[in-house]
Design goal:
The structure is a single chain. With 421 residues, the chain is an alpha/beta fold. The protein folds into two domains: 295 residues, Zn peptidases (Aminopeptidase), CATH 3.40.630; 116 residues, Alpha-Beta Plaits. Helices cover 37% and strands 22% of the residues. Helix 5 crosses helix 12, helix 8 packs antiparallel against helix 9 and helix 10 crosses helix 12. It is elongated, with a radius of gyration of 25 Å. The structure holds 2-acetamido-2-deoxy-beta-D-glucopyranose (3 copies) and zinc ion. The site of zinc ion has 5 residues, from helix 5. It is found in: Cytoplasm. This is N-acyl-aliphatic-L-amino acid amidohydrolase.
Length: 421
């Protein structure tokens, strides 16, 4: 009973403090919140995005900041916009604040509020596709720069704010292409910030690396024939061997993850069977079957050894078994979290000064950060969202306006610190 009453008392306190800190009408009229909601109302969901709309919005943002911008169209209809704020020492490597303008599709019927209306409820929570992933971060970058400029701050390094398309499709027509261009190289990026993931508890999550994505097709060929016989050398037996071996590996990695509470999904290699194809007719043994695995290699895996193992498994499965990569992500240098990386030291110092608890992690999926890192600049994935249900790509994606505003304050400090390194 006693315990219960303490819990009840705590609940009351939490309610009270929440209500006291929130004034929905002040949030409604906050210019940064207005800006965010306008951006969210632009329907930039896959497929067939009309990127002209977010670009027009972003141009007006650049104008409102008094910043010059450039639009690069490496693939027709998929523009990249970069706004630039010149530093006092423009020859120093710059700081890139990258965000993507696209969002994933919605199943509108499953949403309580229309996903492109940016409805705000009585507690200041805004519901919209892309509010976590990652339009809020794009606007936070803009608003942090707006506050710094308004305060008359002059930073040492140049800041570039890039807004890229197609991240949700893997970035092939977006950041991946952009980092290879002379235009990107001319930005002279020394350090970048990009998206992270919301956190449900008190910790902010900071991502310093990503696993390498390998999508591999394994093709087993063999004797075709009548389904009533027991031929040797059939593709089915070979596919079974392959699936067994990969499933054993999967179980081993899963065990490693389950048994060590310090590990998160980004710390281990994952393997998933994602496609299985073959066959022409029920009573005919086919001459070919194919299985596809989605493999994410942990950052400590030796790529050559892993491929050698795939090769060995194919060989053991029998003759006529080959493999092909649909995607073979290279090893990408991780962003160093030590004294060798002054940007990290500056970032960390700000989180300490603000008493923000952080957790550093390997990103479980893929973001544009991997291209930036591969392009030679350290990058951190950080969305300043905590005490928030993690809803990226889900129905009812939401974020509280107060959390969003707090994030602008955090970026104001972080951007200042890393730009003055
Ligand atoms: C969306 O949110 C509402 C409450 O706000 C809830 O009733 C509904 O189940 C949610 N939908 C999904 C798919 O989570
Ligand atoms: C607003 O917050 C209060 C207190 O936490 C909660 O009881 C209420 O359900 C919330 N309203 C909405 C629409 O989520
Ligand atoms: C993929 O496989 C790993 C185990 O290797 C598992 O932990 C993970 O949840 C799987 N992903 C999906 C989407 O099933
Ligand atoms: Zn994203």
């Amino acid at each position: 009973m006693r315990r219960l009453s303490i819990v009840l008392l705590l609940c009351c306190l939490v309610d009270w403090s929440l209500n006291a800190s929130l004034d929905p009408s002040a949030l409604q009229s906050d210019p940064a919140v207005v800006n965010l909601r306008n951006y969210l109302r632009i329907r930039s969901e896959h497929p067939n995005i009309n990127y002209a709309e977010p670009i027009a919005f972003l141009k007006s943002q650049a104008d409102s900041l008094g910043l010059p911008y450039k639009v690069y169209e490496l693939v027709p209809g998929k523009p990249i916009l970069v706004m630039s704020w010149l530093g006092a020492s423009p020859d120093l490597p710059s700081v890139l604040l990258n965000s993507h303008t696209d969002v994933v599709p919605v199943f509108e019927k499953s949403w309580t509020h229309p996903p492109f209306e940016a409805f705000m409820d009585e507690n200041g929570t805004i519901y919209a596709r892309g509010i976590q992933d990652m339009k809020s971060v794009g606007i936070q970058f803009i608003e942090a720069v707006r506050r710094l400029k308004a305060a008359g701050v002059q930073l040492k390094r140049t800041i570039h704010l890039s807004f890229v398309p197609d991240e949700e499709l893997g970035g092939a027509d977006g950041m991946r292409k952009f980092v290879e261009t002379e235009d990107y190289k001319a930005l002279n990026v020394g350090f970048a910030l990009d998206e992270g993931i919301a956190s449900a508890d008190d910790d902010y999550l900071v991502y310093y690396a990503e696993r390498s994505v390998w999508h591999v097709d394994i093709i087993a060929t063999g004797k075709s024939g009548h389904g009533s016989l027991l031929h040797d050398n059939t593709p089915g037996e070979k596919i079974r061997y392959i699936i067994d071996k990969f499933s054993d590996l999967r179980a081993e990695y899963k065990k490693r993850l389950d048994e060590n509470k310090d590990l998160t999904i980004g710390d281990v290699t994952t393997i998933n069977l994602t496609k299985l194809r073959g066959g022409v007719q029920s009573n005919v043994v086919p001459e070919k079957m194919t299985v596809t695995f989605d493999i994410r290699l942990a950052i400590d895996v030796d790529h050559k050894e892993f491929e050698d193992m795939i090769q060995r498994i194919c060989k053991e499965a029998g003759e006529g078994v080959t493999y092909e990569f649909e995607q073979k992500g290279p090893y990408v240098e991780t962003t160093k979290l030590d004294d060798s990386n002054p940007y990290w030291l500056a970032f960390k110092k700000v989180t300490e000064e603000l008493h923000l608890p952080i957790k550093t992690l390997v990103f479980p999926g893929g973001t544009d950060s991997r291209y930036v890192r591969a392009g030679g600049a350290p990058a951190l994935g950080f969305s300043p969202i905590r005490r928030t249900p993690v809803q990226l790509h889900e129905h009812n994606e939401s974020l509280n306006a107060q959390t969003f505003l707090d994030g602008i304050g955090i970026f104001e400090k972080i951007v200042t610190a890393v730009a003055n390194v």
